[in-house]
Each structure stands twice: as C-alpha cells, then as structure tokens.
Amino acid sequence: MRIADCGLRIDAGWVAGGVLALLAAAVVVGPYVGGHKYSERVGPALEAPDRSHWLGTDELGRDELVRLLYAGRVSLAVGLAAAVAAAVVGTGVGLAAGTRGGWVDVVLMRVTDAFLAVPALPVLLVLAAVDLEKPLAAIQNALGVQDADLPRLAHEPWLHALRLVGIVALFGWMGTARLVRAQVLSLRQREFVLAARALGVGGLRICFRHLLPHCLGPILVATAGAVGGNILYEAVLGFLGLGIPPPTPSWGGMLQDARVYSYYRAPWLIYFPGLCITLTVFCVNVLADRLQERGDPTRQ
Amino acid sequence: MLGYLARRLLQMVLLIVVLSVATRALLNAMPGDPIDALRKSSPRPLTREDMDRLKHYYGYDAPFFVQYARWLRNLAAGDLGYSQTYRLPVSELLWPALGRTLLLTGTAFLLGVLLAVPLGVRSAAAPGSPDDLLIRFLCYLGISVPTFWLCLVAIHWFAVRWRWLPPDAHVPPGEGAWYRQASYLVLPVLTVAVQLAAEWTRYVRSGLRDVLGMGYLRAARARGVSEGRILWKHALPNALVPFLTVLGLSLPYLVGGELVVEMVFGWPGLGQLEYEAIRKQDYNLAMATLLLIAVATLLGSLLADVAHAALDPRVRHETAG
C-alpha cells in the first residue's frame, strides 16, 4: 500500500517497520533510563500524568510508563518467540510429512487438522491454569538432584513467559506445516531434486539443503503474519489473569486492573496499555502484509 | 458426494472422541479436583471423611479411564451430568446460555456481514481511492485492536461519560419495555460486529479483486452492462464464494461466544459459563461446553466445505473423487 497522494511515495511498510524498531528500542532501553523498577511505589495512587511521572501512576502508586515499557518487553518477546517456535515446529512437521509421504504424512496431517479443529481459547485457559510446581518436582525427583529446588522456579517470571510462548505457539504451527508440505510436494518431483537423488544425495541432505531453502520465503511471510495475533493472544491471557503473574506487568493485565479501578478516577489508565497493544499489532500487521505483497508478484 | 460426507462425518466423530479424552485429561491435570473446589466454597468446614465420601460418591477416586468411560456412558444416555458449582443439571445451564450467546453473536454476525459486504465492494471497486485507503486503514485498525480494550473504551465513552447506554449487559429483572432491554445489548453487539466487519471486509475486498480482472466481466462490459450491475450482479456472487468458507469457519465463534466481551459486559453466555466451569473445575459442565464448541467448529468447517462444493462446480469435482 503506497500512500499515494502525499507526493513523497512513502511505503507504509517502512513506516510500520520504523515505528516497531522505535518501540523495540524503547522497551529494551527504556527501563534502564527510567530509574524506577516496575514494582516500586513512586507516589500516591492514580495520579494524573505530570512532569515527574509522564503517564501518571497506577492503582498502587507505581509509575505507569515504567510498567508499560516492562510489559512491552514481555509482549514483544512472547509474540516473536511464539511465532518463531511455531515456525520451527510447523516447518519440521511439514518437511517430514512432505518428504516421507505414506502413513507419516497421513498421521501428521490428521494431527494438524485436529489442532485446527480444537477451539483454542478454552484449551489455552486449561493449559495456563496447570500448576507448574508438580511437574517440576517430578523432574527433580527423576533427575535425583536434591539441592536444585526446581519447584521454586515455578514462580520465576521468565518461566511463565516461556510457558506463554509454548501455549501461544501450540496453536500457531498448523498453517506453516500445511504450507511447507504443499511446497515440498510440488518441489519433490522437480529436476534439481531428482538430480540430487540420482547423484546419491541422502534424504536428510535433500531435505535441508535442497528443499528447505525454497520454503523459507513463504515461511517468513507466515511467521511475520502470526506475530500480531500472538501479541493479541498474550494480551487476552493477561487480561484474563492467566499471563505473567503480578507484580510483573503485562499490557493485558494492566488493562484488567485499570478496568476495576479507573473508569471514574483515572480513565487514562484504560487508554495507555490498549494504545500500546493496538499500535504494536497494527504495525506488525502492516509490515507482514507488505512482506506478503512483496513475495507475491501477482498482488503488486 | 455421499461417500465424501460419510467419510467427513466419521472423521468428525473420531476427532471428537480424541478431543474429549484430551480435554478430560487436561482438566484432571489441573491442580486440585472438584471436591477441593467444593470445600473452598462450603460454608461449613468439611472433614477428611466427608471429602473422601464425596469423592467416592462422584467417582473422582476412580482411575482416569474409568471416570471417562462413565462420562461417555451417561452421555450416550443423553445425560450430561450435574454441575457442582451451580447445583443444577448441566443441560439446564447449557441451553439457556447457548441461547443468550447466539442472541449476542448472531446479531453481531448479521450486522458484521451487512457492514462488510458494502464496505468491501466499495473498497474493491476503486482501489487506491481515498475511500479505499480509509476503509483499508480502518480494517487494519479493527483487526489490531484487542477486543476487550475496544469494550473498555466503548464503555468509557458511551456509558460512563455520555451515559447513553448501560455499562453492562446485565438486564435487571424488572426492566420493562423490549427496547429498554435491548439497549443493554447494544454495546456488546456493536463491539463484536465492528471487529467481525473489519476482518470480513478484507476477505470481501480481496475476493472481489481476484474476480474483477476476469474475462467474463470484460465481456459483460463490452456488451454494455452498467458498472453497478457488473459489480453487484456479475462479480459479487462469485467473489462471495470463498467468503462463505470464512463465515463457516466462524461458526465456532458464533456458538462459543466471545469470552472477553461476555466477561467485560457481564453477559451470562456460553463463553463465560465455560470459563467459570474450567476455573472452578466443574468437570461435567466444562466437558459439555467444550464439546459443544468443538462440535460447532467441526460442523462449521464441514458446512463451509459442502456449501463451497455446492456453489462452485470446480470444487465439487474434487470432493466427488
């Protein structure tokens, strides 16, 4: 999409990419510059934005801007990591189904269909509620280490972030799997693959050196397209109280708190996290669509 | 076609069995069990013997597959079981909640289609025009806004600041005229409809763009058929065929409801019922709601495929084979 009438012919993809880069830089660097921690009380609760706290304070007197930036880290990281994880799983499944064929193909594709048919949100709810302490304790017992205290890890924010990545990726890999399988099926009979096979190149090498490079373009497009949806999922889980547990902030969780406290006393708290989510997802979507149009010459 | 249908239905049944086992296993994997939840909500302290007796009475002390087999046997007899949290048979909760959800999502669906088709046509008819750019921008915005935030913003403006509409969908019992009752649903329906329309407009637009370049339209234009007639009578029906698939795939959403919208507005639909059931580990209720939504998902994709085959002869030949 070109913004045609402004005379400059700015590509919307570049604008979106620039905004995203700024956002990423802000959430990575910002918390170091701000000087406050996300759980630190810096003043009275629900104060309006002013010089010292640019976006005011939340219902516990914590700096809203600092919390927004920390929450942005989680959102961006989970959105991106889940998309990458889904791409890896999907590519693996698609390659295996496409190159092996036969019953492997049938089983993998039925599993893919099953995942497409499962209503995602309820399963996400159940998964997000599963207690991590028990499995971690089981792992510790299995390994036989007594001094590591693995169950305590269940309360670490990064482990919850990792769990979120897994949960979101669990329902994100099917598209890539189908895409890669279709691509492999059409490539498998092409001359360069037949030539490689005739020369005695092994199955795995054909798979990764000859077939995979041809699939990378579509995989990239599908992965970029998934990031926006992932960020929205992470926000919904946070809003439902199933994301990163407090006091670690998340945009969805901050909206849930604002909803309870701030309609009348501090309505701006309802706007900041939502605007952050919308701006991020908007830019990701524009960028992903531009990528897709670039990759598909019939659509330019 | 019949063979194809039979094969699809068989796959569906198998999938549902697998799904129900997986769901039940996941529910069991959650910390605690329904009796623990019962103890937390009990006004009198329950002794250990009470709890054991209750566990035995409800069959939660049995091995997993025995529990599952019992549930399946009851299901086959048409008995969905009893909800512990609501102290009512599941069927008495399920169907009214489904009705309320269908009222909300169904209205929003209709409104969404009514918005998406004209907007998509307008956008596709004049690519690059200011209208097209505006519509596309709004669509991007619509699919990028988190639903629950849209609800919060809508409540803040329409209910808190301007006081035009009630802030939640909880209709008080004594509310009189039907339009007063309907006013409680305006905000939830609008928020859902706007988002659906944003998503669907994109499909209508891209479907129409694909069709508009085709030869039969140029032939119609050469015969002197008016532009409006070409757009609405000749191009749109063909462009809407893939859109039907999208609508079919949205069926689970129609049935399952938009959980966050129901939550924010306090509308007691199926989404909320399911969410509460999972949180409170009300196994019977959770299984019933989850399965209902799974069946709707599978039926939706089947319906979409069948409708697609019925409308598009090229697809029909593929499914016949």
Mean pLDDT of chain A: 82
Outline the biggest β-sheet of chain A: none
Judged by helices, strands and strand pairing, the structural class of chain A is: mainly alpha
The helix-strand sequence of chain A is HHHHHHHHHHH
Number of helices of chain B: 15
Number of helices, counting only DSSP H or I runs of 4 residues or more of chain A:
11
Rounded Rg of chain A: 23 Å
Residue share in helices of chain A? 55-70%
- Strand segment count of chain B: 2
Strand content of chain A: under 5%
Could you tell me the mean pLDDT of chain B? 84
Structural class of chain B: mainly alpha
- What is the share of helical residues of chain B? over 70%
What topology does this entry show?
The complex is a heterodimer of chains A (300) and B (321).
Chain A: H1 12-34, H2 64-100, H3 102-117, H4 120-129, H5 133-143, H6 157-170, H7 174-187, H8 191-198, H9 203-239, H10 251-261, H11 268-295
Chain B: H1 2-29, H2 34-41, H3 48-58, H4 64-76, E1 82-83, E2 88-89, H5 90-125, H6 130-144, H7 147-161, H8 178-212, H9 215-222, H10 227-249, H11 251-256, H12 259-265, H13 270-279, H14 283-311, H15 313-320
Helix pairs in contact in B: 1-14, 5-6, 5-8, 6-8, 7-8, 7-12, 8-10, 10-14, 12-13, 13-14, 14-15
Features:
heterodimer, A: 300 residues, mainly alpha, 11 helices, 0% strand, B: 321 residues, two-stranded antiparallel sheet, 15 helices, 79% helix
Short description:
The complex is a heterodimer of chains A (300) and B (321). Chain A is mainly alpha-helical. Chain A is 70% helix and 0% strand.
What do these coordinates show?
The complex is a heterodimer of chains A (300) and B (321). Chain A is mainly alpha-helical. Chain A is globular, with a radius of gyration of 23 Å. The N and C termini of chain A lie close together (9 Å). Chain B is mainly α and 321 residues long. Chain B has 15 helices and two strands. In chain B, helix 1 runs antiparallel to helix 14, helix 8 packs across helix 10 and helix 12 crosses helix 13. The longest helix of chain B is centred in the middle third of the chain and has 36 residues. The radius of gyration of chain B is 24 Å and the shape is flat. The mean pLDDT of chain B is 84. The chains are: A mainly alpha (300), B mainly alpha (321). The interface between A and B is large, with 43 and 45 residues.
